[in-house]
Amino acid sequence: MTLRLSTAGIHQQGLSALLRQQSNVARAQLELTTQQKLINAADDPSGMANAKRLEHALSTLEQQDKDSALVEHRLRSQEQALTDVGTQLDRARQLTVQAGNGALSDADRASIAGELRQIREAIVAIGNRDDGTGNRLFAGSRDGVSPFVVDANGGVSYIGDDGRNQVEVAPGLRIRDTDPGSDLFLRVRTGDGLSRATAGTGNTGSGVLGSATVTDTAAWAGRSLSVHFTAPDTFELRDSAGAVVASGPYVAGSTISGGGIQMTISGTPATGDSFTIGKAPTQDVFGTLETLANALDAPAITASEKAARQNAINRALGDVTAAQDHFLSARADTGTRLAALDDATDGRESYGVSLETMLSTLRDVDPTEAASRLALQSTALEAAQRTLIKVQQMSIFQLL
């Protein structure tokens, strides 16, 4: 059998080999230049798809890192704001204790009332703080509005909402942004946080409510219980339906017990006077301070007026103390979220390193290997070029 190779065929084969080697050299040069081996999807469709997924995951981590930084800034701003409110309430509590001094003059009490209103204004300003980007810390999900508005009569209203933004700061982890002002400044527990006692607004005697506590929560069961004076020296402890829970003689300064509660009342109550204990309601911190300031400004000449003022001071002292505990609890919760953000940062960094390693394995070129391959392919190209030249010089006419 005879194999015949035409001159044209030999030339075509040599040219094809030369072009393949040129393509290999160009590819190796491109990989060295870009430092990537996944340049076109056709090179490795599966590898390119995996690389794109990894790039998307890294892009998501980058966005989560930015969102986490913003949330951290806002939460630290909230923490500082709550600290500042606590400082204001510390001063308010000192003033409340001072106001209970019976030796103070009306001018002294008026001065205390004025400072309490200044504290109230300071807390309103804290409630309207922004985060440095034009958004308020405590407006809920309403951006661009000052949540607390003071009307012409001095009343404070809230125009934010109860929204809580949940921000994704790591894969599968969301952290609450700052708290709405309605929760922080308006829904503040009063009394001791569990119960709260008040003197009847229509009392005409000089009875002053001292302590009032729940001693047996099961027996109390959250009921409203009232001490009614059937005479200046006798009382009945009644529930909201009017049923008598306990009764007996009254001695100033003694403790009245029954129904899972106990009260200490001093002074001389009048017939028909009452003192009530029930579940501690919520009250805005602004109202607590304004009510106390108004009580200090009110004239107190008669024994009953002085007793009413002292009852207002005692009630405010409990409410301010409860407000302090409320804001301390909010600070602790804020600190918990900040700690979670720190953990999320560590998790993102670790996950990001893992993704970068996987992506590098798929996409990046080993410079040493690529340079060695380029040198080999360049040598092969040179050999192909020389071979083609030799083949082109071959002709039967050289034998004649």
UniProtKB/TrEMBL annotation:
Record flagged with keyword Secreted: yes
GO biological process, one term: bacterial-type flagellum-dependent cell motility
Keyword NADP among record annotations: no
Record domain Flagellin N-terminal: where: 7-141
Subcellular location, record wording: Bacterial flagellum; Secreted
Domain of life: Bacteria
Pfam families, alphabetized: Flagellin_C (PF00700), Flagellin_N (PF00669)
Alphabetized GO MF terms: structural molecule activity
Domain Flagellin C-terminal: 320-400
Major site of localization recorded for this protein: other
A GO cellular component entry from the record: extracellular region
Keywords carried by this UniProt record: Bacterial flagellum, Cell projection, Cilium, Flagellum, Secreted
Family to which the UniProt record says this protein belongs: Belongs to the bacterial flagellin family.
Record PANTHER family: FLAGELLAR HOOK-ASSOCIATED PROTEIN 3 (PTHR42792:SF1), FLAGELLIN (PTHR42792)
Protein name: Flagellar hook-associated protein 3
Taxonomic source organism: Luteimonas terrae
